[in-house]
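User: What would this chain look like folded?
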Amino acid sequence: MNTMRAIVVTRLGPPGALRLQQAAKPAPRPDEVLIRVHAATVTAGDVVVRRLPFLVWLPLRLLIGLHRQRIPGHELAGVIESIGSQVTRFQPSDGFFGTTAGRNAGDCAEYVSVPETRDEGVLATIPQGVS
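Assistant: Here's the prediction, encoded as structure tokens.
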């Protein structure tokens, strides 16, 4: 199994609950692109979630899964490493930026696999001439 480095939420609490750990490297499904992440954001929402009291945090955790490894992040830039068999808009080595908002894709990792469609985020290639 391939692994990667990722920031992982290990427990409820302040930023000290975040740890750099090994995680499973995702493989793109037929409709997804695998992105090697070059940059990811930490948003105000990420900070607020770290401060939520347990009684508020628990229902949110139930919604996203109690036992699922949680890698934060939903805005990123990087390069497409590989594509699924049904992907038509992107090619490997395309520079990429976008958001996976609402999907909890885990962009604070070396790699993330994201659907090419707009249903679960907004993906775009970086225009030529833009670093």
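The mean pLDDT is 82. If you want, I can go into more detail on any region.
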